[in-house]
Amino acid sequence: MKKRIIAAVATLAALVISVTGCTASSTDTDYPTSSIEITVPFAAGGATDTFARLIAKYAEGQGHNVTVLNKEGAGGIVGTEAVLTSKPDGYSIAATAASSSLLNFTIGTEIPYEPEDFTYISRVLLTPLALVVPGDSPYQSARELLDAVKENPGNFSFGTSAAGGPSTFGLGELLLSEGIDPSDLKMVIFNGGAPTVTAVAGGQVDFAAQLIPEVTQLSKDGTIRPLAISSDTPIAGLEAPTNEEAGIPDFSHQSLSGLAGPPDLPDNVVEFWENLIQNALDDPDFRDQVENQLGAQPSYLSGEDYRQWNLDQIEKYTELAAKLNITK
Prior knowledge:
By secondary structure, the chain is an alpha/beta fold. 44% of the residues lie in helices and 20% in strands. It is built from eleven helices and ten strands. The protein has helices at residues 2-30, 47-61, 77-84, 98-101, 142-151, 166-177, 193-201, 212-220, 267-281, 284-294, 303-324; strands at residues 36-40, 66-70, 92-97, 119-134, 157-160, 186-189, 207-211, 224-229, 254-261, 297-302. Strands 1, 2, 3, 4, 5, 6, 7, 8, 9 and 10 form a ten-stranded mixed beta sheet that branches.
């Protein structure tokens, strides 16, 4: 009798395990079953917003319902925190950018989350900067400009869209590589990339280094002149030498576009997005939109590789922030 009872219990236990296993497997394959929200922690119309909407549009073309929510504030912190404190089910993810997931950590900003709190999904794109001067500037090349700055740094001013933004780090890295102390120049901070580029066009500052989408239009009409891009790969639609061609290989800082979620995001969710992103980057139409609308370059990293890269970048740029004296 006891043997029959034990056998029955064992059979029941095996059945429970089998059913549980099937349920877990079914759940894995079911995602997504409802609308997914990508939160952009910045205002509509910017590079991160455009990136998120391109991803959403591609996902929708694959039969998935994806919406974009703009939740701006505190340099990307408000929207990012909202995602990191959401339920880790894959239906609320964040579009990441250099400031919100990387540079904010390097300048002493008070942030209610840590870099390790993210579930990193994928680094998708890198967007170079363009070193620009007014259209009527006497400087025809990056070398001419930098030689003049090195000779009389106090006579020059540069614009930037944020004290701790990609433009500041990109220019700071370049100036230091040339033996120029950035603090010897006048740094003028504007409220965003567009006002910064407009200030260059109007001669309010002598030069700036802003993201490609922010400089393309004014470069085409000759209002500003691009002297170099922070990449060794040419950018479609922008006539400017690469950093190698301009003789300034250390001008290499680029802004990132990626995806991340709250802590403990399930592996199947990460895998879903990794696969979708890789397929998107293999799609000629998607790549064409990326290059022409964002001036960006596909630069895929898987979730784990993105996590390690981001942590390494935080360490690197924390040291640079101290040299640039922009730590709060």
